[in-house]
Amino acid sequence: MKKLLLFFIFLLLIQQVLSHDLKQGEEILFESRQIKVIALQQEKAIIQVDEEKNIINKGQSKIIDGVIIKVTDILYTGDESSLVTFNTELSYSCGDLTCSPFENSKNCCKDCPCQGNKRCTSSGCIVPECFLDDDCNDSNELTKDSCQDYKCKHQKISCTKDSQCNDNDPETDDFCSSGTCQNLPPICKSDEDCKDEDLCTLDQCINKDCSYKKIENCSQPEEKNNEEEKSNKKDEEIIQLTEKEENFFKRILSWIKNILS
Known about the structure:
The chain is of the alpha+beta class. It is elongated and about 135 Å long. It has helices spanning 2-13, 221-260, and strands spanning 17-23, 27-30, 33-40, 44-49, 52-57, 61-64, 67-75, 83-90, 119-121, 124-126, 143-148, 151-156, 173-177, 180-184, 201-206, 209-214. A hairpin with a 7-residue loop joins strand 7 and strand 8 (83-90). It is built from 2 helices and 16 strands. Among the domains are: 15-90; 187-219, no CATH class.
C-alpha cells in the first residue's frame, strides 16, 4: 500500500510530457503555449513557441520560451508533407504560486495574476460576464442558466408544460409534446378557409381547426344533374341512331328507283 501511495505521489510531481506529430506549417496549443513547425530539413526543424523560435536538430532538446522541446524523429519528403515528431514539457510548474521568468498572465494566470478587472480562468485572463448563476438569467424557462469560469452558459432543457412554449405569436398553436415545443401555424382563420366541394356539410373554423358537420336530409344536386345528363345522353344516342337508320333506308330506296328508271 505504501509503495502504491509513493507511486501516485511520483505521478503528481513529474512534469507532463506529451508527444506530437506535426507537418510543416501546422501548430498546436500546449499548456496555453502556441507551438508551430516553421520549416523542416532532413536532420533539423525550426520550431516556434509563441513569439520565439529556434533550430533543433534531430535527437536534440532545447528550451524555447519556457517549453522543453525534444525532436525525436523527422520524416523529410522535400515538401509540405514532411513530418516531425517531438516531445513537449514545461520547464516551469504552472500552479506553484511562483511567477517564473517564462510565465505571464497569458500562459499561467495561476502564478502571474491578471491585470485590472480581469479574472483567471482555464482559458486565461478574461473580463468576467458573471459571478453567480443568477447573473445569467435569460428569462427563458427552457434553459438552465449557470456561471462557469466567469462566463454565462445557457443549456437547453426539455419542456414540461404548454405555457413554456409560448412564442408570443398569436397565430400559432403552442404546446409541449414529449419534452419538445411545437409552434404550429393555424389550419384556418375563418370559415371560408374550410370550404370544400361537399354541399351537404357545414364548414366551420373552430379553435383554428376545420370542422365538417353533416347536414341532415341533404342530397347532392350534382348527383341529380349527373343522372339527368346521363338520361339526356342516352336520348341523344337513340335519336342519332334513328337518324342514321332513316338515312340508310332513304339511300336504298333511291338506289332502287335509279335501277328501275
